[in-house]
Amino acid sequence: MAKKSGKNQDVFTNNMSLITKFIDEYKIKANQLIKKAEECRIVKPWGKEKFVSPHLTSREKEVAQLLTYSLTAREIANRLSLKTRTIEGYIDKIKDKYLCAGS
């Protein structure tokens, strides 16, 4: 927390434009993520029909969870002692079930 006078206040004041820029960038990225999630039907778009989550197998859930840590298919395969192509197949099935296109 910045003091009312002194060096800490100067640091905060001198970086206000940087803080404002960060907030603006954060808002843009957040809106992009929300839009992508809506496109992939991961979240319910406000004011639209109710979305029911598709059933994922236990392995698909496990892969999806690992994807949230930004792991690659190869890294997930190594963790689960499976082939990379098998993991890519699970990822494709997950995307199909959520009607996602692209990567």
Could you explain the architecture of this structure?
The chain is mostly helical and 103 residues long. It folds into two domains: 34 residues; 49 residues, Winged helix-like DNA-binding domain superfamily/Winged helix DNA-binding domain (Arc Repressor Mutant, subunit A), CATH 1.10.10. It is built from five helices and no strands. The chain starts with 6 loop residues before the first helix and ends in a 6-residue tail after the last helix.
Can I get a quick summary?
The protein is mostly helical.
**Can you identify the CATH superfamily of the largest domain?**
Winged helix-like DNA-binding domain superfamily/Winged helix DNA-binding domain
The biggest sheet, with number of strands, parallel, antiparallel or mixed sense and barrel status, is: none
Helix content: 55-70%
CATH class of the largest domain: Mainly Alpha
- Output mean pLDDT: 76
Q: At CATH's second level, what is the architecture of the largest domain?
A: Orthogonal Bundle
User: What fraction strand?
Assistant: under 5%
- State the assembly state of the protein chains: single chain
Which radius of gyration do the C-alpha atoms yield?
Answer: 21 Å
Instruction: Indicate how many domains the architecture comprises.
Output: 2
Helix and strand run: HHHHH
Looking at this protein, list some descriptive labels.
103 residues, mainly alpha, Arc Repressor Mutant, subunit A, 2 domains, 5 helices, elongated
